[in-house]
Amino acid sequence: MKLFKAMATVAGLTGLSRIAGFVRDVLTASMLGAGPIADAFFVALKLPNFFRKVTAEGAFSVSFIPKYAEVLEQEGVERSALFASRTMTMMLLILSLLTLLFMICMPWIIYGIAPGFEVGTERYDMAVSMSQITFPYLLFMSLTALMGGVLNAHDRFAPFAFAPVLFNLCLIGMLLASDSFENAGYAMSWGIILAGILQFSFLWVCVRRAGIGITFKKPVLSENIKEVFRRMGPGLIGAGVLQINLFADLFIASFLQSGAISYLYYADRLNQLPLGTIGIAVGTALLPMLTRAVASGDKEEANKLFNRALEVCLLLGLPCAVGLFIIPHILITVLFEHGAFTSEDAMTTAYVVMGYSVGLPAYIGVKVLSTVFWSRGDTRTPVKIAIITMSCNIILSLILIQFIGVMGITLATGLTGWLQYFLLKRKLPMEITYDQRFKITFPKIILCNLILAVFLAGCLYSEPLIFNKNTGLLLEIITLLIIIFSSMTIYFGAIFGLRVVKTSDFKRYFRRT
Q1: Looking at the domain assignment, is residue 334 inside a domain?
Q2: What would the 3-class secondary structure string for 28-64 be?
Q3: Alpha-carbon distance 92 to 88, whole Å?
Q4: Consecutive 10-residue runs of the chain (513 residues): their mean pLDDT?
Q5: How many other β-carbons are positioned within 10 Å of the β-carbon of residue 512?
Q6: How many Cα atoms occupy the beta-carbon half-sphere of 440 within 13 Å?
Q7: From start to end of 284-386, where are the E strands?
């Protein structure tokens, strides 16, 4: 199936980006630790990313890509390119004004999103100035996302999936050159702007080389563009709700102990490795294919795509959740416990990771379920459910932090992820159901993960013997790699042993079609 080839392409390049991101995070943890500079920078990093995920990769993508695919299918390449060009110019005008406004109002914005940062303190002042530096990234990345969506609709998934690698390489380079700046936080802030310019330039070249005639044209409010904006209304609310959830976490954490925001960041980086790699791969590949199946009225193909995508999510997402729940301390110790990042920081971050891991499979599954609605032009249903789960998440966070501190924030996030999954599942169209193959495969995947959990529990029991003060960094890294590769061998051995996946499946999935 072309779906699996596309998913493999996106997942592979996203995985490369995550590896580069971990190198960046190891350097960041070593140089910044979990202190005030780190807290300020992570706020500055989250702010443009919040709007990017709401506009560019959230509401806009799920509204624009299905419409672009529809115009491409029905009216041809030239008309679709004209539609994309006019949309891009309109996006440039709107986001330029938004960027300028937010840069001017940044002191009040920082006070609003992180009120625990007292005005006049070093943490507050740095958060304001760093955010003013990073916010224009929103503009460059939004235009990059539009071009990436166009390429995806033409089944060219690699360029946009590679773009985040450039982002991480830029930040790594700026960290290594941080002596030229006031501190590493400012170096990374300027690196974000440089990354935005490079990503935009790279996608622009890729679009031109693909022969897609997108350029900046005088915007005309055509019926197609109006429809994109109509669909974006609920999508903006839905994507905004998700990001408000993240900012609610930041808001609550700003009142907790110093470093709480940093603990959330480092834990989320581990959580995002599987969530981003698998979730983004599935959503990116599935949306244009599912849209075409729905548009052509092929219900059987649509249901087949849904089931195989969900299968892959479980197959790859569940073992990641098991690993993050059982051995988070080993992972955090090896990756981050260096330089300014202390053993106490590592222990707290490990507990925070466990909270995220509870909901990891659910959030990957939500990507698949949401894509079903988006492919049908229904952006309202996911929004209504997202509002319900956001409210539950905030209430549950406020309750749990009274008992388990910052871990309560991520545990609430994990638990409400399952609520969101089951609510979305109930609202699926009648023709989208679990097929017979999925019903047979699901219990086998659960059994394979139980086998993996037993092995990882043994690793956890041996942790004091393997990872201690006398263990050098090189030996820690080698031991961690042995644990990871042994886990993969055991898990996939069980997968093939129980015939969850056969070698013949791979030949069929990745054949040239």
Answers
A1: no
A2: HHHHHCCCHHHHHHHHHHHHHHHHHHHHHHHHHHHHH
A3: 6
A4: 61 72 76 73 77 62 72 76 82 87 88 73 85 89 84 79 86 85 86 91 88 77 72 60 65 72 81 74 67 71 81 87 92 79 84 92 86 75 85 90 88 92 88 85 93 92 70 79 91 88 55 44
A5: 5
A6: 7
A7: none
Is residue 496 in a domain? no
Question: Among 453, 489, 491, which Cα is nearest to 327's?
Answer: 453
Contact 406, 256 (CB under 8 A): yes
* Pick from 218, 67, 40: nearest CA to 128: 40
| Number of other CB atoms surrounding residue 303 within 10 Å | 18
Contact 72, 81 (CB under 8 A): no
- Single-letter amino acid, residue 183: N
> CB of 213 within 8 A of CB of 81?
yes
Handedness of CA 36, 39, 44, 47 (dihedral sign): negative
What residue numbers bound the domain in which 176 lies?
36-220
| Domain total of the chain | 1
- Residue 372 included in any domain: no
Among residues 129, 128, 127, 135, which one has the least CA distance to residue 100? 135
For residues 510 and 506, what is the distance between their CA atoms, to the nearest angstrom?
A: 6
DSSP codes, 72-116: HHHH-HHHHHHHHHHHHHHHHHHHHHHHHHHHHTHHHHHHHH-TT
Q: Output the CA torsion sign for 471, 272, 341, 196.
A: positive
Q: Looking at the domain assignment, is residue 493 inside a domain? A: no
Q: How far apart are the first and last CA of the chain?
A: 7
Q: Is the dihedral of CA 266, 271, 274, 280 positive or negative?
A: negative
Quickly tell me which residue has 């049908």 as its tokens. Answer: 376
Contact 385, 427 (CB under 8 A): yes
